[in-house]
């Protein structure tokens, strides 16, 4: 067809009438956005989805992918970059995951910037206010100097364990959430050390180095089961969903929450320490974001919204819980020995009844958020009793 003929056809009234007659009365696609192939996580398309879902990159064997494999096919050792065999659980579409926090790169950087500025202002005002003079010396030197520093290795170990889950995750939405959850752990560890460095500048006799903390982490019986859990989940587990479930769905929700919330944050106040609760508040925010993200993946996507493989996935989540709950219980049981070193004792807080109430809070919260949705049954009294045997 010549250009002249084509031009005439476009402006010819009869041809235009024929074209209009063929147009359906109702639009074929009612989604008025630039990614109609994507399932919306909320009522309207969010900026998070628009950025993360403009392309669904993965190899064609991954459910939900729209690519044919223009990615790194194999890593050294033969492990694939995108491979459905990287996890035992199955999904009809790995691109249905939505991070409830709606974080992608720019909001994540903005959040970190705001948190850093807030921390800088608080640390400066804390140092100038004279609150440091109220801090109990034994709490400062033994608990913050040795055991608070040891907790850095726990947080950093969990950060490192996210390294393989990032490249094994089967969609960009999952990779982004996993990497941010991992970096939050690294940030939590850095904030603890920042606090210890500030204390070292105020008190000449406080050593902010990690020498004693490393010794506690590697040699103390109090930290031994926790260290063994970190080493196992980091080096010995190759299923990336299993890693995420073990870390955020069991270990960090029971052991991690007890250490940071029930011990360091709650006991700091009775020792005149007004700095540690602020630092741990940020870590609690990171935990909440990771916890909600894991529920969106394992509970919502793999169970509630999965119409084909939900029973298969539930069996694996239950099996993993059966495997890692005893390890977590053992870690917390050993940690309770730290109450013998607490300088100031307080009825209802550091006594046996107070500690058991704290244990019950973290166990019950875990049961409601993670055990109940996967129909996992456990003996609550036996678990709490085993943990309390370490007091």
From TrEMBL:
<keyword id="KW-0560">Oxidoreductase</keyword>
<dbReference type="Pfam" id="PF02332">
    <property type="entry name" value="Phenol_Hydrox"/>
</dbReference>
<protein>
    <submittedName>
        <fullName>Butane monooxygenase beta subunit</fullName>
    </submittedName>
</protein>
<dbReference type="GO" id="GO:0016709">
    <property type="term" value="F:oxidoreductase activity, acting on paired donors, with incorporation or reduction of molecular oxygen, NAD(P)H as one donor, and incorporation of one atom of oxygen"/>
</dbReference>
<dbReference type="InterPro" id="IPR012348">
    <property type="entry name" value="RNR-like"/>
</dbReference>
<dbReference type="InterPro" id="IPR009078">
    <property type="entry name" value="Ferritin-like_SF"/>
</dbReference>
<dbReference type="InterPro" id="IPR003430">
    <property type="entry name" value="Phenol_Hydrox"/>
</dbReference>
<keyword id="KW-0503">Monooxygenase</keyword>
<dbReference type="InterPro" id="IPR012078">
    <property type="entry name" value="MP_mOase_hydro"/>
</dbReference>
């Amino acid at each position: 067809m010549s250009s002249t003929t084509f031009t005439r056809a476009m402006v010819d009234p009869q041809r235009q009438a024929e074209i209009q007659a063929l147009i359906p009365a109702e639009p074929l696609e009612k989604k008025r956005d630039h990614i109609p192939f994507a399932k919306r996580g909320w009522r309207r398309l969010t900026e998070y989805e628009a950025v993360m879902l403009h392309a669904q990159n993965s190899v064609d064997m991954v459910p939900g992918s729209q690519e044919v494999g223009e990615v790194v096919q194999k890593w050294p050792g033969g492990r694939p970059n995108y491979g459905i065999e990287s996890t035992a659980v199955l999904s009809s579409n790995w691109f249905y995951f939505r991070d409830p926090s709606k974080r992608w790169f720019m909001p994540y950087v903005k959040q970190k910037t705001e948190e850093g500025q807030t921390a800088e202002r608080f640390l400066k005002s804390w140092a100038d206010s004279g609150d440091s003079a109220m801090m109990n010396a034994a709490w400062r030197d033994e608990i913050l100097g040795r055991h608070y520093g040891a907790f850095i290795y726990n947080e950093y170990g969990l950060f490192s364990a996210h390294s393989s889950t990032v490249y094994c995750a089967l969609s960009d939405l999952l990779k982004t959430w996993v990497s941010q959850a991992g970096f939050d752990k690294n940030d939590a560890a850095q904030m603890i050390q920042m606090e210890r460095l500030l204390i070292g500048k105020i008190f000449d006799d406080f050593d902010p180095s990690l020498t004693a903390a490393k010794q506690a982490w590697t040699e103390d019986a109090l930290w031994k089961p926790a260290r063994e859990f970190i080493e196992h989940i980091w080096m010995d587990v190759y299923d990336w969903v299993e890693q995420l479930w073990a870390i955020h769905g069991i270990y960090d929700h029971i052991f991690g929450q007890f250490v940071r919330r029930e011990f360091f944050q709650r006991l700091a106040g009775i020792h005149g320490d007004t700095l540690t609760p602020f630092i741990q508040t940020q870590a609690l925010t990171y935990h909440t974001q990771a916890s909600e993200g894991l529920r969106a993946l394992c509970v919502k996507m793999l169970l509630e919204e999965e119409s084909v493989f939900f029973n298969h996935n539930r069996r694996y989540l239950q099996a993993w819980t059966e495997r890692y709950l005893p390890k977590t219980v053992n870690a917390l049981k050993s940690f309770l020995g730290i109450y013998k070193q607490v300088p100031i004792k307080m009825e209802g807080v550091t006594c046996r009844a107070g500690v058991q109430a704290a244990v019950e809070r973290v166990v019950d919260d875990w049961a409601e958020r993670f055990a109940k949705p996967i129909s996992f049954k456990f003996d609550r009294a036996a678990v709490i009793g085993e943990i309390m045997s370490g007091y």
